[in-house]
Amino acid sequence: MYQQMIFVNLVTADVPATRKFYSGLGYGINEQFSSDDCVSVVISDTIVAMFLTPEHYARFTQKKIVDARTSSEVLLCLSAESRAKVDELVDKAIAAGGTSHGDPQDHGFMYGRAFDDLDGHTWEVMWMDPTAIQG
Predict the structure, then answer these.
(1) Core-most of 4, 40, 84, 109, by most CB within 10 Å?
(2) Which CATH superfamily does the domain covering 1-63 fall into?
(3) CATH for 72-135, among 3.40.50.720, 3.40.50.300, 3.40.50.150, 3.10.180.10?
């Protein structure tokens, strides 16, 4: 079966700082699709976050580009394999210069936290008990 991929394109004010931030979280960089005005962050085999300078991003849209520090353009949510992995990733992000976003959400069968990256993009990290999904 074909594995559909998602390429999330986001604006960054500082490509080298973004590269360092996401590398510090343990994600790989695809150098083939990275340059001075873009960094390609490999989150998984099917998820890639493309961080582009505002000038480069503007080549792909005619809409106004929002400042994620003051406006919300998207909420991104990543799954985690355990509650501990949720905390691990969010704590790494905060230690690397990100900021905590909101309070932890603990519903017993589902647990999540969120962080804002260096440019204000909100990333939620969520774990859900597999038995809750099965019904």
Answers:
(1) 40
(2) 2,3-Dihydroxybiphenyl 1,2-Dioxygenase, domain 1 (3.10.180.10)
(3) 3.10.180.10
> Under 8 Å CB-to-CB from 49, ≥6 apart: which residues?
7, 8, 10, 22, 40, 41, 43
Token representation of residue 8: 């999330």
pLDDT, one tens digit per residue, over 90-101 is 999 999 999 999
Half-sphere exposure of residue 22: CA atoms within 13 angstroms, side-chain side: 24
| Chain region(s) in the chain for CATH 3.10.180.10 | 1-63, 72-135
Query: Rounded distance, CA 98 to CA 120, Å?
Result: 8
The reported pTM is 0.89
The answer to whether 78 and 124 are in contact (CB under 8 A) is yes
Please report, for residues 37, 54, 61, 62, 71, the alpha-carbon distance to residue 31 in angstroms, rounded to integers and kept in the order given: 12, 20, 24, 27, 30
